[in-house]
Amino acid sequence: MAPSGPASGAAPSLRRTLLAWLLLPLGVIVPAAVALQYALVLEPAREAFDQALGNTALSVAAFVHDEQGEPRFDMNPQVERSIRTDQQDSIYYVVLGPSGQRLAGDPPLAEAKQVLAADGLAYFDTEIDGASVRVAARGVACGDAVCQVRVGETQVKRQRVFRESLTGTVAGVLAFALASLLSIVLAARRGLLPLQQLSEQMGQRSLDDLRPLDSASTPRELHGLVAAMNRLLDRVRSGSLAQQAFLADAAHQLRTPLAALKNEAELALAEDHPPQVQATLARLNAGAARAARLSSQLLALARSDSAAAAALPSESLDWESIAAEAAQEWVPRALAAGIDLGFELQPTALAGRRFLLRELLANLLHNAIAYAGPGAVVTVRCRPEGQEAVLEVEDNGPGIAPDEREAVFRRFQRGRAATLQPGTASEGSGLGLAIVRDIATGHGGRVALQDADSGRGLRVRVTLPARAP
Predict the structure, then answer these.
(1) 3-state class of 384 per DSSP?
(2) What tens digit of pLDDT does each residue of 340-364 get?
(3) Are 355 and 433 a contacting pair, CB within 8 Å?
(4) Do 151 and 262 share a structural domain?
(5) How far is CA 61 from CA 118, 144, 352, 430, 437, in A?
């Protein structure tokens, strides 16, 4: 009977299926091997015991002779004691005349009817006093007639030998079965190991890692699966690149008209205009600024995508110089917003893509200035720590609650403090920290949101692999 299929609703297991098909023959072979081995051991032992019993009957038959037409049996007591002596079994014998009359010996052995020719030999089983007895019967010529000598013994020795034989046979076959079972389990595990490794390799990849799988280290039987997965990854990669290209093109095409709209709105605000359109022009200017920043962030998001960024060359950089460049742009903005923006910079060498790392820092500074509030202190730090290049942007604003810190890395997700703070509810897009994490991840780094040293505010810590100076 073949192994049954999986229960309804249960996921099939390849390992269980392999083990079932491999162990099914073993379940049939083991009992058959026990029976065959036992038979092969039992039959020679039985023949040896019967031959010894037959030899004893032949020895007793030597004392039977014919005297003037009458059968006689002459065996002295010493010989009889010798024949009956056994450490484990009881020995019986009987001598029967031609007509079946008992000439000597034990009456219970005379009860069975057995016809033999002279020098004939037969074996049969009987019972004496509740004990099983094996009997050897031999025909002896008594003149023209045939007498019969029967020698029997209980089967204590036989049963002990048979039990030991069975125990040894079962132990040997079970040892073989256990060794085979272990080999089958190890073989199944070893055979499925490449599948497990392939599964782990896929499970450890990030969503952006669409590199083809290496088929050189996989068995030939998995090459078809690996090839199919690589084709799927290639299609996903092509689709992702097309999507990012569309997003980048759209954001790029929007930047020019949005910049022109923002300039026109600012120009209209700067020139004389009727008071009743002041609010409209201000909203127009703010909306154009938000749209322009959103298009810039979408473009940065497209560029920070791992599939797109991987094609860009990496260069030797230093956080100190990148932060110094950012200071020229962001210090005036901070002053205009009433923010105290300071820098604590150390030479911090790393390898990366300059425009992406500048975008990373720009998003952190924008968030700090936008949400820390007037009068807040924002500090930018960079320093090497062992094999890592660390960038920190810390403020003493409202911060982000610990239970929100993972959620704010999702795209278009903003913290409660940002949406409730006056003047910022409609300013942000919820893309800044998502862009920061994407850029850091693309550079082999990580981003952490921590409490500020003062206990109030937020510290954003970006850790990237350092480069030897």
Answers:
(1) strand
(2) 999 999 999 999 888 889 889 998 9
(3) no
(4) no
(5) 11, 16, 109, 114, 106
Query: What is the per-residue pLDDT across 56-83, written as a single tens digit (0 to 9) for each?
Result: 889 898 888 888 778 888 888 888 888 8
Beta strand extents in 36-130 (DSSP E only): 64-67, 70-73, 91-96, 102-105, 121-128
Number of domains in the chain: 3
Please state the rounded mean pLDDT for residues 47-56.
Answer: 89
Same domain as 188, residue 41: yes
Asked if residue 226 lies in contact with residue 215, where contact means CB atoms within 8 angstroms, the answer is: yes
Do 181 and 298 have their domain in common? no
Residue 7 lies in a domain: no
Contact 324, 273 (CB under 8 A): no
Comparing CA positions, the residue from 248, 347, 244, 366 lying closest to residue 305 is 244
Look up the CATH number of the domain holding residue 422: 3.30.565.10
Domain boundary among 204, 231, 253: 204
Of residues 132 and 3, the one with the higher pLDDT is 132
User: CB neighbours (10 Å) of residue 412?
Assistant: 9
**Structural domain span for residue 369:** 313-465
Residue with tokens 């599964």: 199
- Does 237 reside within a domain? no
Shared domain for 64 and 200, answered yes or no, is yes
Other beta carbons within 10 Å of 164:
12
Same domain, 337 and 377: yes
Residue bearing the bigger pLDDT, 280 or 288? 280
Are the C-beta atoms of 356 and 303 separated by less than 8 Å? yes
| 222 contacts: CB under 8 Å, gap ≥ 6 | 194, 195, 198, 215
